[in-house]
């Protein structure tokens, strides 16, 4: 599970994995919400990552305000580490929750597993017309 809190004093949190790790990692963001002590101001949370050209990009994923939208469900918004969550506006505190999945490459099979080979498949009898 992933959990972090962004505040006026801790405006960012970076999730990264060991570069020598040979596994595939998926980080999924489930919920972003204001917590105790939040003011009635706009709190904008951005996700900072790298695009296909390895340039840094920042995308706002939540704009929370205590009086109208204190919580946002992101339905397991999937990201590939390394990724930084940044409080771009507001003073928080904003809590982020999600999960981290590790897929070991030697365990992952990209080939379709056929339970039955051609020799094992049952032959079905031909369909006969109904008797009158």
TrEMBL record:
Main localisation: nucleus
Gene3D superfamilies xref list: Nucleoplasmin core domain (2.60.120.340)
Limits of the Nucleoplasmin core domain: 2-100
Entry-linked InterPro entries: Nucleoplasmin, Nucleoplasmin_core_dom, Nucleoplasmin_core_dom_sf
Keywords: Acetylation, Chaperone, Methylation, Nucleus, Phosphoprotein
Superkingdom, taxonomy of origin: Eukaryota
UniProt protein name: Nucleoplasmin-3
Organism: Lanius ludovicianus (Loggerhead shrike)
């Amino acid at each position: 599970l992933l959990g972090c809190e962004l505040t006026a004093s801790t405006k960012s949190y970076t999730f990264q994995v060991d570069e020598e790790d040979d596994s595939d990692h998926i980080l999924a963001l489930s919920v972003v919400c204001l917590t105790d002590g939040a003011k009635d101001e706009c709190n904008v949370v951005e996700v900072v990552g790298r695009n296909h050209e390895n340039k840094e990009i920042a995308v706002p994923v939540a704009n929370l305000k205590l009086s109208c939208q204190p919580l946002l469900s992101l339905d397991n918004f999937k990201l590939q580490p390394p990724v930084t969550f940044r409080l771009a506006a507001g003073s928080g505190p904003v809590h982020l929750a999600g999960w981290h999945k590790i897929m070991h490459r030697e365990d992952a099979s990209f080939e379709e597993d056929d339970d039955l080979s051609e020799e094992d498949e049952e032959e079905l009898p031909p369909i006969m017309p109904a008797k009158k």
